[in-house]
Design goal:
2 domains; alpha/beta
């Protein structure tokens, strides 16, 4: 199981509060409140309906506890665990109303984040024979970036920058406006603090040679074939971190990884990975 960061509690609390407010609306859960007695208690299980990797339990637990702090939640499979179909992720016991009202918000977070973690694991597993690491991008759902990037870590991947203030990443449009690779790099170095890393995107080996002449901490090798990537890695010879991006699919990722790059960034992980189907069922009897 991967070594996971701790999700900041204030992010978890705020995201869950907003999600519950959206779901509860102006009148609360009128279905549950009209059909379930206030004193009714229940036991429920959250289980995997398909194999995958679990992520998002802190958010699910927070959803149940915001509805009723007295609910008991026992985790069966912590975040980052591999799931087989039918595995019990968590057991919840307490107020039936609270369980049923929090159910959808809890499952929405779990399904979305577990889908990202599961997709990351599939990519990472396929390149385990190489040194390359799968990483994410900023192509995330607005407001959910910290959680979606956490899910990538749950799946065994790595995080790219979290925002525009993390590091300097000079893209093709920056280069075009700045007047070329060298002017862009020199301006970035003049402005960057001593702890700020500089990465620059290149599309061709000729552009890479310009970067090698001036230097950077990392280079983003965009939309290159595995053969060209391998040549780029040879030219760089360990002087910079190498990151490949563009056209990364389950069919292409192995060839990209075998070129020798350090990182492979995959925007699909956070903008298009399918949810993992998890269900909550009340235990009868």
């Amino acid at each position: 199981m991967p070594d996971l960061p701790i999700l900041p509690a204030h992010h978890v609390e705020a995201a869950v509060r907003a999600a519950l407010a959206e779901d509860l609306g102006r009148a609360g859960d009128i279905t549950t409140n009209s059909t379930i007695p206030a004193e009714a208690r229940a036991k429920a299980v959250i289980a995997a309906r398909h194999a995958g990797v679990i992520a998002g339990l802190p958010l699910a637990i927070e959803a149940f506890r915001q509805m009723d702090p007295q609910l008991s939640v026992q985790v069966g499979k912590p975040d980052g665990s591999r799931l087989a179909k039918g595995d019990v992720v968590a057991r919840i016991e307490g107020s039936a109303r609270a369980i049923l009202t929090a159910e959808r918000v809890a499952l929405n977070f779990l399904g979305r984040l577990s889908g990202i973690a599961s997709a990351t694991a599939r990519f990472q597993d396929s390149i385990a024979h190489t040194q390359a690491k799968i990483c994410d991008t900023r192509k995330t759902t607005p407001g959910l970036r910290v959680f979606e990037k956490y899910a990538v870590r749950c799946g065994g991947g790595a995080n790219h920058r979290f925002g525009l203030d993390d590091a300097i990443l000079i893209k093709d449009n920056h280069i075009a406006v700045a007047g070329g690779i060298i002017p862009a790099l020199q301006a970035a170095k003049a402005a960057a603090g001593h702890l700020v890393a500089i990465e620059i995107e290149v599309d061709t080996l000729d552009q890479l040679d310009e970067v090698l002449d001036d230097g950077a901490d990392a280079v983003l090798l965009d939309n290159m074939t595995p053969d060209v990537l391998a040549e780029a890695v040879l030219r760089i010879a360990g002087r910079m971190i190498t990151e490949a991006s563009g056209g990364v699919t389950p069919d292409t990722v192995v060839g990209i990884a075998e070129s020798g790059v350090d990182l492979i960034s995959v925007g699909w992980l956070t903008h298009s990975a399918p949810v993992l189907d998890l269900g909550l069922d009340i235990e009868i009897g």
